[in-house]
Write a structure and sequence with these properties.
- The structure holds two protein chains of two kinds.
- By secondary structure, chain A is mainly beta.
- In chain A, the strands form two sheets. In chain A, strands 2, 4, 5, 9, 10 and 11 form a six-stranded mixed sheet that branches. Chain A has a five-stranded antiparallel sheet with strand order 1-3-8-7-6, with no helix packed on it.
- Chain A is globular and about 45 Å long.
- Chain B contains no helices and eleven strands.
- In chain B, strands 2, 4, 5, 6, 9, 10 and 11 form a seven-stranded mixed sheet that branches. In chain B, strands 1-3-8-7 form a four-stranded antiparallel sheet, with no helix packed on it.
- Chain B is mainly beta.
- The chains are: A mainly beta, B mainly beta.
Chain lengths: 112, 113
Amino acid sequence: ILNVEQSPQSLHVQEGDSTNFTCSFPSSNFYALHWYRWETAKSPEALFVMTLNGDEKKKGRISATLNTKEGYSYLYIKGSQPEDSATYLCASPRLRDDKIIFGKGTRLHILP
Amino acid sequence: EAQVTQNPRYLITVTGKKLTVTCSQNMNHEYMSWYRQDPGLGLRQIYYSMNVEVTDKGDVPEGYKVSRKEKRNFPLILESPSPNQTSLYFCASSLNRQSGGYTFGSGTRLTVV
């Protein structure tokens, strides 16, 4: 993996169901992994900053895990609610320069 | 309130007319960055700054300039805008590039005709 990649690109989930999606990033020279939530017509807001292999962070019904050796992070949403509809972005700082690279996001739609 | 203030929110301009989008943060953050967001391409980094007087090109710097004369301000300058610079622009800052998540400005929707 040379860049930050997210899957799926889009996801439709029934209200009340739980869901998860993936962020893949270069595992060599790992620095940190950020998750953001981006609602339509607003700015992205930071959810989690993760740095350690095996890290697990939680914020209400949303949690994230990190595997730096294989280069992936999962974001989980438990019991999806309409307000969870948003695009979820992950980003990783690159060690070889000082750039912070974003994935293209997973667009989550919660169906009533 | 801790925030990144970005102005203007909306701007329509003509090709070739120089413009500046301002960005200011009140959190004493070291790292500041500009991104553009285009459909299907995600957020792409234009320029970033590790600290005062230290700026570097991101992945799409062509046609843009920046400066970081003070810690709080990081303006984005388009010397001669062209229609392919029509986009949604975000300024963002963080304490440093690895330990802090970004705080984003409210975005600038730029249209170049």
